[in-house]
Amino acid sequence: MKKILVSVIGGHKCDEKTAEVAEKVGKIIAEEGAVLVSGGLAGVMEAANRGAVSAGGLTVGIIPGNDKSEANEFVNIVITTGIGYARNTIVATGSDIVVALPGEYGTLSEIGFALSLKKKVYGLGSWEMPEVIKLESPEELREVISGLK
Description:
By secondary structure, this protein is α/β, with parallel strands linked by helices. It has one domain: 3-Layer(aba) Sandwich (Rossmann fold). The chain has five helices and seven strands; from the N terminus they run βαβαββαβαββα. Strands 4-3-2-1-5-6-7 form a seven-stranded parallel β-sheet, with helices on both faces. Helix 1 (16-31) packs across helix 2 (44-54). The termini are close together.
C-alpha cells in the first residue's frame, strides 16, 4: 500500500502560536501514518517536521539548494534540487494534499501551483480564497487524512 503524502507549507519565519499549530499538524500527519513533505527549511517547515518526528513519523524535505545540511534537523529524507524557490512547485504538487499555514508570497505560490493541478488545499490561518478549504483546527486534518486511506 502506498503512503499518503501531505505537504505542509508556510513561512520560513513564524511566531510561537503558528509554530505550535504547525507542530500539531506534523504530529497528526505522523499519527495517521502519512508522510510529511515540506520545503525542509526553518519556520513552519521545521515546526511541522519536529511534530511528525516526535510522533515517529517520516519527513521529506525538498530544499532549494544542493547542500543537505541546509535542511532542518527534523528532516529524515533530504532531496536537494539546486533550483532555488522553483522547488515550491515540487513541494506543492508532489503530494496528495496540501496544508497551508501562515506565510508570505512563497506560500501563496505553492497554493497556486497545487490548485492549478486540482490538488486539495486545506488552510489553517493561511491565505484565504474560495478554493482553499478552511480548517478550524489541526484536529480536523485527522478526518481529512483518514478519508484518503
